[in-house]
Description:
The chain has helices at 4-17, 24-27, 33-49, 64-70, 121-127, 149-154, 202-214, and strands at 54-60, 76-81, 85-86, 101-110, 128-138, 159-164, 180-185, 188-194, 225-230, 235-236, 242-246, 252-256.
Amino acid sequence: MTITYDFGDYIYDAEKSLEAVEPFTECFPDITVDEAYEAQLKYVQRRIADGATVKGKKIGLTSKAMQNMLGVNRPDYGHIFDDMIHSESTAIDVEKYIAPRVEFEIAFVLKEDIDGENVTVENVKEAIDYVLPAAEIIDSRIKDWKIKFEDTVADNGSSAGAVFGKKHVKLSEIDLPSVKMEVFKNDKKLDEGYGSAVLGNPLEAVVWLAKALHQYDIKLKAGESILAGALTKAVDVKKEDRFKATFGSLGEVEISFS
């Protein structure tokens, strides 16, 4: 289906114009997962041609909470660019997005490349420099979040932004599955979850990611940041909203909107 190469252009144009497009799975119900990832890569090529730099990857739909929210049963991934990364100290303009949501997760920074051909949890552990808390902004360039799996894949995993906490922790100093996260919205507790919500262990999500990328001849590279997936459901955001997520000994991350 050569038309899928246009899907990446549609996503690129929708992001630039803030005008969402109809679900690809409605217009082209036979679109495959491979074609959706081809479309994502076309979008990535357009962004790179514009001068953006890939700074990492996001893994999505790793928890039952998010899979149930979007009606899917498997993870996906997207690319993170330099212009998507924001500071905790600066409020983010909600009008830069179409229908933004925020979710909170455990993130990793790599010190070594990871080749997904024969990757194991031990390989991943050796490649990780440190762990840190993160907030991810997700947004749908598909109208009204009416997405199926192939739609969100083509839409760069619905990735739109990231904020990272200041505390860096070595893997040897933390038990990831037992990390308890509590989310606060405008100083009121909203939700809580554990690291085990992400495929039993967030490291397993990185293994999955490396293997999935290998199918398209993509490697995880030293210096990249990896968002391992939300521990709880995503939350809609509006102007003046403030969020904080605490992760026990892993620290905390704050994100605000204007």
